[in-house]
């Protein structure tokens, strides 16, 4: 096995230089960095992380002790901890106890031997003796089960879960019910039973036979097989653990396939309905995130033991449990072409299955949908209209019915949404015209492997005498783009510094405005006039031209094209809207595991995406209202995000199963609140943004294609803006 001395000899440098290069420390020249990295690759040298930890005197590993990894909820917990830890440069180690006390104690000793940063445990220990304390482990988080010695504890309200599920059983009026739990010695199981029995034992309310079975990992199949084989007409099986429920369902399918049994179980949150059993959901991904954050962000000296009881999500209703038989009504939906349209189409089928109401989705391009809006007949053809946020103020009063006139309590649903979205995606001039469906915001995406490469960082340092960092201004953005464009593409696998998307006037205007808003918060001056022919407009246009020189240019026609370039590894950076970002993680992506995201330079991102409104002339306004409420709220909104779209709902951004897949969503939520841009004046009939971006986009393309210089292009654009928008104020 190669040693650090071998690498030093082959690279022709000192051992200290090799150590500095491999650990990202010291002031080492780009030539030496390249030589060391090449020598390490050729010799197959890898850093011994365990040895590094021992030298430091403390580990960089979180040990996670679970009873089994077979159950989905435990995998969800572990994956959430692992993901959060990786984001902070911390490793995780999975350890399985099989609910054996002696094994768990051995695993505790292992955590001690590697000087673990912290331990997360679903403990099976019952005695007063605390092996975690004996092992001198300072940061230990107990999850789900609470031994007598447990101090820092994380779990859910299991008593309420038991009560809630008992209420469901009573409401269903089942006659023969089996309740299956784990060992009653575990705190979560005893609390669950306490809550369940309290409801079931209420006088004169329970008219069914209830049998309670306490079991464990190894006896669950045998215990249930004995019950099933008795030939009882069981109506329902209620289970405290999703892993147990999965085993029970397999037994039922195998031995009594013709006997329908409704199975209820506590389980992790799912993105789509679970068709095997009815889930009472608990957010294990959020639980794991909070645990990891505390272990990593809290020093031993300030680590305070606490009790954390997280809210149960419970039964999430995907639709009416008993679909209506009347299928005579049809809702027509006008949708924008893109990933979201396909998702809406498929979710519409689910809605039809639940309600019996047919939903037809017509899909149009960005330009064609605008043409449809200009056609008065659209009001008669469609019930639900997907409208771009940039067009909402202009078309709301012309096309849409105020939602309060259909549902007087419509604002009751707003508590589910991110508050910052309401003024942008719902309210127009004090009335609710739409519900947000795909709120998005501009984000900066970059190649982490390039920005974190030691050799590249050194080359940048040598050229610009400063550290390579995520750009916070478009001046720096262009500088970095120029740097990457001029790199040796064969060595570093990058062709262009950045993408600039100029396919039509709308996207061209977005590129300009992203830069304009980095200098000025919004379009309007103190008199309410739009001014772009000023110092900010000139700076923005110059920066756009400079950026274009280090891009793929005409190849980037639309945001999906730029995303494809980025996913192919052609570009180092890209600015696009978050609802297009899933494109960079497709199966053909070459950089899926190398993507970072950040705030756009200037910190004032443009918001995009759209809302759903109801046509003035819809013949099925109430049905359309119920459909858009269903589509834009939980749990469907989270399903849309999990399928590659975005969501307006707060709870989606607590779903770490979704955030792990699309990590920029967490940042986009923050950006919604930071964006200070505004499209409409404080008062007035609305803003025809389509007309505005056509003027601006034309100026951009004229300038980029060198038909006009900046001064002439902005002067002409300002004249048209004055004629179309500013003169109406005089």
Q: What does this protein structure show overall?
A:
By secondary structure, the protein is an alpha/beta fold. It folds into 4 domains: 4-47, 434 Repressor (Amino-terminal Domain) (Orthogonal Bundle), CATH 1.10.260; 67-88 and 141-316, Response regulator (Rossmann fold, 3-Layer(aba) Sandwich); 330-439 and 610-645, 3-Layer(aba) Sandwich (D-Maltodextrin-Binding Protein, domain 2); 441-607 and 681-729, Periplasmic binding protein-like II (D-Maltodextrin-Binding Protein, domain 2, 3-Layer(aba) Sandwich), CATH 3.40.190.10. It is 43% helix and 15% strand. The chain is built from 30 helices and 23 strands. The strands form 5 sheets. The chain has a 6-stranded parallel β-sheet, sandwiched between helices. A 5-stranded parallel β-sheet has the order 7-6-8-9-10, with helices on both faces. Strands 13-12-14-23-17 form a 5-stranded mixed β-sheet, with helices on both faces. β12, α13 (339-355) and β13 form a beta-alpha-beta unit. α1 packs across α2 (15-22) and α2 packs across α3 (30-43). It is flat and about 85 Å long. The model is unreliable at 53-57 (pLDDT under 50).
Write down the overall geometry.
flat
Helix content: 40-55%
Class per helix and strand makeup = alpha/beta
Q: At the first level of CATH, what is the class of the largest domain?
A: Alpha Beta
The CATH architecture term of the largest domain is 3-Layer(aba) Sandwich
- What is the assembly state of the chains in this entry? single chain
Output the CATH homologous superfamily of the largest domain.
Periplasmic binding protein-like II
Work out the helix count: 30
E-strand count: 23
- Total number of distinct structural domains: 4
Low-confidence stretches: 53-57
Strand content: 15-25%
Q: What topology, given as strand order, has the largest sheet?
A: 2-1-3-4-5-11
Radius of gyration: 30 Å
Q: Fill in the CATH topology of the largest domain.
A: D-Maltodextrin-Binding Protein, domain 2
Mean pLDDT: 86
Please summarize the sheet with the most strands: 6 strands, parallel
Distance between the termini: 81 Å
């Amino acid at each position: 096995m190669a040693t650090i001395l071998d690498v030093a000899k082959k690279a022709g440098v000192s051992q200290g230089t090799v150590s500095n290069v491999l650990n990202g420390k010291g002031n080492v020249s780009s030539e030496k960095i390249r030589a060391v990295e090449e020598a390490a690759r050729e010799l197959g040298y890898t850093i011994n992380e365990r040895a590094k930890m021992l030298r430091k005197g403390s580990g960089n590993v979180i040990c996670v002790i679970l009873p089994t990894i077979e159950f989905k909820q435990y995998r969800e917990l572990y994956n959430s901890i692992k993901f959060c830890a990786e984001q902070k440069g911390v490793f995780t180690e999975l350890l399985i106890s099989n609910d054996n006390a002696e094994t768990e104690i051995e695993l505790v000793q292992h955590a001690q031997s590697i000087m673990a940063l912290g331990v997360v445990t679903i403990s099976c220990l019952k005695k007063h003796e605390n092996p975690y304390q004996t092992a001198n482990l300072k940061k230990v988080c107990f999850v789900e089960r609470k031994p007598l010695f447990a101090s820092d504890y994380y779990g859910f309200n299991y008593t309420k879960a038991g009560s809630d599920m008992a209420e469901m059983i009573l409401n269903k009026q089942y006659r023969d019910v089996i309740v299956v739990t784990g060992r009653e010695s575990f705190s979560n199981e005893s609390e669950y039973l306490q809550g369940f029995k309290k409801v079931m034992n209420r006088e004169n309310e329970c008219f069914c036979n209830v049998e309670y079975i306490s079991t464990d990992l190894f006896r669950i199949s045998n215990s249930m097989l004995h019950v099933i084989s008795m030939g009882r007409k069981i109506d329902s099986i209620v289970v405290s653990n999703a892993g147990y429920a999965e085993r029970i369902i397999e037994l039922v399918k195998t031995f009594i396939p013709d006997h329908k049994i409704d199975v209820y179980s506590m389980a992790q949150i799912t993105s789509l309905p679970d068709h095997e059993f009815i889930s009472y959901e608990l957010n294990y991904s959020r639980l794991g995130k909070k645990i990891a954050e505390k272990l990593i962000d809290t020093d031993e000296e300030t680590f305070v033991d606490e009790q954390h009881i997280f809210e149960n999500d419970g039964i999430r209703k995907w639709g009416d449990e008993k679909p209506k038989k009347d299928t005579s009504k049809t809702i027509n939906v006008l949708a924008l072409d893109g990933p979201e349209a396909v998702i809406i189409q498929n979710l519409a089928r689910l809605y039809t299955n639940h309600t019996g109401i047919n939903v037809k989705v017509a899909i149009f391009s960005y330009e064609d949908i605008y043409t449809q809006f200009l056609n008065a007949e659209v009001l008669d053809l469609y019930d639900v209209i997907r409208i771009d946020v940039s067009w909402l103020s202009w078309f709301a009063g012309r096309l849409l019915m105020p939602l309060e006139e259909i549902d007087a309590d419509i604002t009751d649903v707003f508590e589910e949404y991110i508050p910052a979205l309401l003024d942008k995606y719902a309210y127009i001039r004090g009335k609710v015209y739409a519900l947000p469906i795909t709120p998005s915001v501009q984000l900066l995406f970059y190649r982490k492997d390039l920005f974190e490469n030691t050799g590249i960082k050194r080359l940048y340092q040598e050229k610009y005498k400063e550290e390579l960092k995520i750009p916070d201004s478009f001046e720096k953005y262009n500088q970095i783009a120029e740097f990457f464009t001029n790199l040796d593409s064969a060595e570093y696998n990058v062709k262009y510094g950045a993408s600039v998307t100029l396919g039509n006037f709308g996207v061209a205007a977005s590129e300009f405005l992203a830069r304009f808003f980095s200098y000025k918060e919004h379009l309007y001056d103190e008199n309410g006039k739009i001014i772009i022919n000023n110092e900010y407009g000139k700076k923005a246009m110059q920066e756009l031209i400079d950026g274009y020189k280090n891009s793929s240019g005409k190849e980037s026609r639309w945001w999906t094209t730029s995303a494809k370039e980025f996913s192919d590894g052609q570009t180092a950076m890209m600015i696009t809207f978050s609802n297009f970002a899933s494109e960079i993680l497709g199966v053909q992506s070459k950089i899926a595991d190398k993507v970072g995201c950040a705030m756009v330079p200037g910190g004032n991102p443009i918001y995009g995406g759209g809302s759903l409104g109801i046509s003035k002339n819809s013949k099925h306004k109430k049905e359309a209202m119920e459909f858009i409420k269903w589509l834009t709220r939980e749990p469907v909104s989270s399903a849309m995000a999990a399928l590659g779209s975005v969501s307006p709902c707060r709870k989606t951004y607590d779903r770490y199963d979704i955030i792990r897949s699309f990590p920029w969503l967490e940042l986009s939520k923050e950006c919604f609140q930071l964006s200070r841009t505004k499209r409409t004046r404080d008062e007035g009939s609305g803003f025809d943004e389509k007309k505005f971006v056509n003027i601006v986009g034309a100026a951009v393309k004229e300038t980029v294609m060198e038909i006009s210089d900046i001064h002439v292009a902005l002067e002409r654009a300002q004249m048209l803006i004055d004629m179309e928008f500013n003169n109406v104020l005089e």
